[in-house]
Amino acid sequence: SPVGQISSKLLDYQISSPTTTVTTANNPSLNTSSILSTLTMQQHTMPPNDPMNTDNHNGSSSLYFYNHQYLGQNYDMNETNNIPEILTKLIESDQAYRCTEVRYIEDIQQIHIDLTRDDGDILVVCSLLDKLCFLMVDWARQSLYFKDIQIDNQIKLLKAAWIEILIIDLIWKQCQQPKETCVNCIVSANGQLLNINQIQNPAVKKLAERYLQCVNDFRQLQWQYPEYLALKYLVLFDPDVQGVTESSLIEEVQEKITNALGEYTTDHNNTSSTSNTSSTQSQVPTNEQEKFACILLKLPDVRLVGNDLKKLLQLIDRKHDGKLLDGCLLGEMLNGLQSNN
């Protein structure tokens, strides 16, 4: 497919261990042609002396990269007081993964998007999203609790949550940038600032504006790294996903994280106490409400942006006779395989 071709030219993408340790004989419901199935069946291993654990470009530890790219400016990884044990474990799991992610992020940063092109550089945009899907799956399959779920259920959860997780990641990344440096701009996963005023397509521009409204709402909440991470887990562990056979286990995990998030936000409520008299007052919860509820109230907005993005991608794919995303993980997530529907 066009996206598959440009993706292979941009970077030779491999995720963690290339060795598949689970065979379809043990999981007869899995389709061997599924990229997602192959990824979830891989064993996640990272030798302690693996060169990916070090940023070879400047010789610094990838932990430095992790702290400066994913943590808030005022967040101290060594400060574990008043953080529920479950959130601490989620942070440790995420930190271990981010340190293996450095090389892939460096490759993604080489991708450049040109919004002034008539097609909005759609091939490059889709290729970037395809790479982010790989990273998202790789993050999920090594995450705490997720590894304990059967692979076929993992696939169902990922297909239900992928777009919202990607959007939450992008929002978090943008919230770490000073607001004044990205006015009317989307901070792409490759670090590029995309000025929405350069977008030619009205539907795409409207989607971008809605996304930036979500970013501004989360900025006002002053959400912190543990809250961001917990939100991703709550989206991923959805016991109501159709077809899952371990609903009780998934619901138990969701409840644990929900309780831990509620406890954390009670002790770390940094929302602004100043009054809000702007036109967005009805959209942004005030400080009088618990921060926990404020964060959860933003999930429908994230879901709406995700649904609009999926519709846009499907429309673009149809304009290319359904071949644009054929054979890509992005296309598989977007449209699904017949055997997994």
From TrEMBL:
InterPro entries: NHR-like_dom_sf, NR5-like, Nucl_hrmn_rcpt_lig-bd, Nuclear_hrmn_rcpt. Residues 264-285 are annotated as: Disordered. Residues 267-282 have a biased composition (Low complexity). One of its GO terms (molecular function) is RNA polymerase II cis-regulatory region sequence-specific DNA binding. Its main location: nucleus. It comes from the Eukaryota. Residues 82-335 form the NR LBD domain. GO terms for biological process: hormone-mediated signaling pathway; tissue development. Keywords: Receptor, Transcription, Transcription regulation. PROSITE patterns: NR_LBD (PS51843). Gene3D superfamilies: Retinoid X Receptor. It is found in: Nucleus. SUPFAM superfamilies: Nuclear receptor ligand-binding domain. SMART domains: HOLI. This is NR LBD domain-containing protein.
